[in-house]
């Protein structure tokens, strides 16, 4: 499991650890990891560290300190390192002194004498460096092989301020590799929101633990690849993170496996109430996902029975609606439902009586009565995309996309349901606020194709029927679905049924002994 902790938790853990270490030791660990990562990037980009050109963008806090100490290490290996200081009067003095000792240069984009700074070594650093105008800063960044973003880390608030923002834009336009220190500057560490200009990195080197912004879009897209440097923080982090992302081993453990005693009811029977005369394909695709999701049987109740049977003769089709469909251990309702509110209400009633979980997707989200969902005693899983979530919350789609974590949590609370908010970083929020939100690491833009959501609803519904909790069914379903999307696409467009067909291969891969 990969975990992400909030800034407040990281700060508390850092205080505990720092109290047990000599002053500055933690920053040296961070800088050593950062310098090693930068050296690797330079090796790939410029062939070697010696003779390469490195520009450090240095803000006024410890994030800038990390960049300066890492820059000193690179300068000692023969790189030409120039620090561009955003606030020379508040720069990390010890870091600047180290860089100067190692032969690095510094220029300031604002006038002011270095103060000695936080934890600073004063002395040498007190001499102000030359002031660079915007043209000189632009020239430096354009000529760099590597730009290190040490503008702000977990102490950053809001979009980049005046002075910092143009430098981030220069870095983006320069063609140099960009390595962000701890976080890409300008993103909100705890929420993954990006409300103003922010650095776009090729690699983010983060310290101690992931922060939510490194896992949640839109910030995640600014981070590039992420490398975690161990600085010894783990023993001081609490058990419960803010966010968690399942990895292969977690998913392998959670995927249902039939035993010698299994029959179809022990494996789980999933009921699919989907499709309409207008959208029969949604029914076929939801069934396609459900058949690959580990349940022992799939019952279909709806008007697209003929289309379903033509494609999947193993489906148990009933014409009498959900109430007469026979015993099921979980229901899926909503894909392609059009305006059929009656079926949605019937599924909720039948599932309440049988006390079985319900997954509500697509049209079903609009048609389901919120109070009926809130008062359920068995689990409910809602699977909206950003547009559907926005409609349920009464806000614009752009607002949901900008603040995905907040939107998922809010919906889970309003509906007292588990919410899977689809996107390239799909989120799974629980109605109980005291468990970490799950984030799916396997998403791919190739999955943004008609019908792919129907496949996911069948797949996750099948996992619910097999006995997984709503949270596990949602996050395991999203994980497998994401990998199936990648495999089906393999760099070229794939259709939703290709995604369903790729599921067994992904399942084998995930559960294969490593
Ligand atoms: N603690 C530790 O043990 C370790 C910490 N480590 C490192 O320290 C980092 C945290 O350092 P930090 O606390 O000094 O905060 P930091 O991210 O540098 O930013 C604060 C400065 O930025 C400024 N500023 C704020 N918003 C801004 C904006 N939008 N645009 C522009 N400027 C903005 C703000 O200005 P102010 O609001 O004070 O005027 C203040 O001066 C952490 O991410 C990691 O890299 C590692 O070495 C491992 C050990
Ligand atoms: K940064």
From TrEMBL:
Name the UniProt key words of this record, in alphabetical order: ATP-binding, Isomerase, Lyase, Metal-binding, Multifunctional enzyme, NAD, NADP, Nucleotide-binding, Potassium
Reaction catalysis annotation:
(6S)-NADHX + ADP = AMP + phosphate + NADH + H(+); (6S)-NADPHX + ADP = AMP + phosphate + NADPH + H(+); (6R)-NADPHX = (6S)-NADPHX; (6R)-NADHX = (6S)-NADHX
Q: By its UniProt entry, which Gene3D superfamilies does this protein fall under?
A: 3.40.1190.20, YjeF N-terminal domain (3.40.50.10260)
Q: Which InterPro entries match?
A: CARKD (IPR000631), Nnr (IPR030677), Ribokinase-like (IPR029056), YjeF_N_dom (IPR004443), YjeF_N_dom_sf (IPR036652)
Amino-acid positions noted as binding AMP in the UniProt annotation, renumbered to this chain = 422-426, 453
Q: Which cofactor does it need?
A: K(+); Mg(2+)
- Ranges where the YjeF C-terminal domain occurs: 247-510
Point to the regions of Gly residues compositional bias: 114-123
Give the residues the record marks as binding (6S)-NADPHX: 62-66, 153-159, 182, 282, 336, 385, 454
- The EC number(s) given in the record are 4.2.1.136, 5.1.99.6
Where are the stretches annotated Disordered? 110-131
Q: Where is the YjeF N-terminal domain?
A: 10-239
**One Pfam family from the record:** Carb_kinase
Its domain of life reads: Bacteria
Q: What binding partners and quaternary form does the record give? A: Homotetramer.
Q: Which HAMAP family match?
A: NADHX_dehydratase, NADHX_epimerase
Function according to Swiss-Prot or TrEMBL: Catalyzes the dehydration of the S-form of NAD(P)HX at the expense of ADP, which is converted to AMP. Together with NAD(P)HX epimerase, which catalyzes the epimerization of the S- and R-forms, the enzyme allows the repair of both epimers of NAD(P)HX, a damaged form of NAD(P)H that is a result of enzymatic or heat-dependent hydration. Bifunctional enzyme that catalyzes the epimerization of the S- and R-forms of NAD(P)HX and the dehydration of the S-form of NAD(P)HX at the expense of ADP, which is converted to AMP. This allows the repair of both epimers of NAD(P)HX, a damaged form of NAD(P)H that is a result of enzymatic or heat-dependent hydration.
Family membership: In the N-terminal section; belongs to the NnrE/AIBP family.
Write down what this protein is called. Bifunctional NAD(P)H-hydrate repair enzyme
Q: Which organism is it from?
A: Streptomyces chilikensis
